[in-house]
Automatic annotation (TrEMBL):
Protein name: Carbonic anhydrase
One GO CC term on file: chloroplast stroma
Species: Flemingia macrophylla
Gene Ontology terms for molecular function: carbonate dehydratase activity; zinc ion binding
Compartment annotation: Plastid, Chloroplast stroma
Job description of the protein: Reversible hydration of carbon dioxide.
């Protein structure tokens, strides 16, 4: 199950023979094979070869890749022997998943935030109180949000082009809200940071002060249907006891916006030229 979770970060998916998929933080490699059913599958990842000091990456062929995360540090052992590792495929008929139609209580507030390009993702980090969510009476403070592309979770086996994680913390636990996007109309919030992402893709900067950012503008939720399960952080140390809420409502983001997000991770501008 752990290996399955790690593999989901670089899942092969059916694509046109001329198309490729990319995964953040990875080296520009492409492997294509024909599997049962005759379809062409590709897994493409982009990362800077020069970044040798990174602690981990998403390259399945690397000794710092997802299949080896649990061996890199003793404190990352849950990455290889945890029992509730994320991400997972969300299905209504799986016992582990509760399909809920009641609301989750969000009490967000606009607050100052920075935009950061890290080795692994693009993150909005609030520097003051941005509000909280309530789950079963426990208050979790919103800390940051970041994007993964392609999505980490799948729903009924379908992988999406982009996934947003809103990360919240209580005194001793973590709760993450996941939102999935498919390619379509541009996302309103991403439109406001395109210039910043372009600078990050060009390695001109890796942090920008955004001013006041409303978390509700990023989430853009109008539905309260979600999957709820108890999982883990999806990156080392892969800590468990993370309450996941993945909304079934999907957002859209423009193709160029998704390419820009990928290129801005680790300033790998070469990703801008790649199809996905
Ligand atoms: Zn995440």
């Amino acid at each position: 199950m752990v290996v399955e979770a790690r593999l989901r970060r670089c899942q092969r998916r059916r694509v046109d023979a001329s198309a490729v998929t990319e995964e953040e933080g990875g080296r520009a490699v492409m492997e294509t094979s024909t599997e049962e059913g005759g379809g062409a599958y590709a897994c493409k990842v982009c990362y800077s070869d020069t970044n040798s000091d990174e602690e981990y990456n998403y390259d399945l062929l690397s000794n710092k890749g997802p299949l080896n995360w649990g061996n890199i540090k003793e404190e990352w052992h849950l990455c290889k022997n945890g029992t509730r590792q994320s991400p997972i495929n969300l299905q209504e008929n799986r016992a582990i998943v509760v399909f809920n139609s009641s609301g989750i209580q969000r009490n967000y507030r606009p607050a100052n935030a920075n935009l950061l390009s890290t080795d692994h993702d693009i993150m909005v980090n609030w520097t003051e109180n941005a509000g909280y969510i309530l789950i079963n009476g426990t208050q979790y403070q919103l800390v940051q949000c970041h994007w993964h592309s392609p999505s980490e979770h799948t729903i009924n086996g379908i992988r999406y082009d982009l996934e947003l994680h809103l990360v919240h913390r209580s005194l001793n636990a973590v709760a993450v809200i996941g939102l999935l996007y498919h390619t379509g109309n541009p996302d309103q919030f991403l439109s406001t940071i395109e210039d910043d992402l372009t600078l990050m893709a060009a390695n001109i900067t890796n942090v920008t002060h955004l001013g006041i950012v409303d978390p509700e503008q990023i989430a853009g939720l109008t539905s309260n249907k979600y999957f709820r399960y108890n999982g883990s952080l999806t990156t080392p140390p892969c800590s468990e006891n993370v309450t996941w809420t993945v909304f079934t409502q999907q957002k859209t983001a423009g193709r160029e916006q998704i390419k820009l997000l990928r290129a801005a991770v680790n300033g790998d501008v070469s990703c801008l030229n790649l199809a996905y």
